[in-house]
């Protein structure tokens, strides 16, 4: 048993991690299915949810979404008066029980940043991204991240299809890019002032010399 902010976290039959004590805030408990990752990864997810509920005291309802860094989770009510955590499929086609994709995305983003001695700045599904033609079509991307307002990630994702006319660029929600280009997700927590360049199957990360 782990105690976090007065809430117990228990392993149930090596199948679930369940938070016990959240019913004082929600009138329900919360649990997450244990999948293919190490148990501490699921503990981190539960702690994140506990922090959100204890600190923000939100009103939560069936099928409500919650961002987990750069991925999306959802509360689903089961027959035990308990919310199970579901997550968005990698292609955005729906939700599956568990949080394995969310864990993978956050871990990969963190590792890329640590390799560059950078502190991750995780974009989220409520923010926007600026893209050129060719991004959704899977073409090689040059990504540059700038300081930006809170509702924007700061990312500009440009392909060779860009014609140089800034008016041809589109501002879209981050989740459109997350679902269409899962291949670049692990690079998108690189902080402002840096860029990545795809080419010949490789990706290079560098400080933006224009900063």
Summary keywords:
single chain, 211 residues, alpha+beta, eight-stranded mixed beta sheet, six-stranded mixed beta sheet, 14 strands, elongated
Oligomerization category of the chains in this entry: single chain
Helix content: 10-25%
Main beta sheet: 8 strands, mixed
Shape: elongated
Write the element-wise H/E pattern from the N-terminal end onward: EEEHEHEEEEHEEEEHEE
Low-confidence stretches: none
Please give the number of β-strands.
Answer: 14
| Mean of pLDDT | 93
**Structural class label:** alpha+beta
Summarize the structure in words.
- The chain has 211 residues and is α+β, with helices and mostly antiparallel strands.
- 21% of the residues lie in helices and 34% in strands.
- The protein has helices at 23-26, 39-56, 100-115, 174-180, and strands spanning 2-4, 7-12, 16-20, 29-33, 65-68, 71-77, 82-88, 95-97, 128-131, 142-145, 152-158, 170-173, 194-199, 202-207.
- Strands 1, 2, 3, 4, 5, 6, 7 and 8 form an eight-stranded mixed beta sheet that branches.
- The mean pLDDT is 93.
